[in-house]
Amino acid sequence: MHAQQPAPAGPAGALSGIVVADFGRVLAGPYMTMLLADLGAEVVKIERPGAGDDTRAWGPPFADGQATYFLGVNRNKRSVALDLGDPAGLEAARALVDRADVLVENFRPGTMERLGLGYERVRKTNPGLVYCSVTGFGSAEGAALPGYDLLVQAVGGLMSVTGEPGGPGTKAGVALVDVITGLHAGMGVLAALRHRERTGEGQRIEVSLLTSLLSALTNQSAAHLAAGVVPRALGNRHPSITPYEVFEASDRPLVLAVGNDRQFRALCGRIGAPALADDPRFATNTARVAHREELGAELSRRLAERTADAWFEELTAAGVPCGPINDLGGAFALAERLGLAPRVPAEAAGPGQVAHPVAFGATPAAYRSAPPRLGEHTAEVLAELAELAETAGPSGEGTERSEERTAGR
Q: 98 an active-site residue?
């Protein structure tokens, strides 16, 4: 197998030479495999003929006839349309899996086994394979539960700590659990590849949406497990720090994120109320949390006197974390002003692409191709597999690759 286009001049990606058979759909799996592809892996996306990944139909909005949801997580991949219910399509999928370094799937538990693509079967012909399963609620008792992000946000506790106090609970504005799970899955794949490099052994790894969310709840989960606290929604307030919330400036909302007593003292000096920093009710964070209502009233009155941008400039200069609530236009403008280059040039991977978030000094992310049309590379990939099968002969390439991995290469 080979990358769909020659890589741009410069260092090869850190994952160059790694082949990923991507059976993932919707968000968690495709997001993770796109990040691997950005770092040089060759990702072959297996899709249903005629329909493809569900997110191809998740619009509006659309760009150039394609759903922007799909475009956002599928660059640098090749699309192969295979009917896994057809013997010929299934055989092609098996041929790809036999030559892959990584397999990613997020079907309901048991689906890959019914297709003859379960781990115990494919490891026999590809013992070095890293086999990553993304599930909603695990592959045992939770196997029958559908792994939809909104559902997991609800039953996994995120909505109970998001929204206004006493409200019905609010979901995050993006499918955050899917994204977090994709990041955990990617870390697991990289760790498994490192293990294979040392030992020659592949392995199956599983990442669930539920456990990924519980891990991501960090301090809230720790408060529950270690102190028996059942956290509740506090709106834009923080359960353990204050002032760490939204205030109204004279023109629009402003966030303050004061994390220590030094920052609080600087805040008090800049808003013309230095005595607040010595008030016993507010002198320490613990005291401020206990008297957050009184402190909030004092700060609200003073912050309403100036614009959000004026406070942003002055308080930031004093080392006080603060800023206006930007829409995405403002957020991208800020990133660009800070030299972070958050957009991929359209000529590199099509319009509307957010850059890989990690900046590497030696092996930077590369943007080789736009998100593929459904089945765009089917003939190309099948021809490559046929050529590899002829070259490998009856014993197959899998034997040779297994020997290489055992030798630690």
A: no
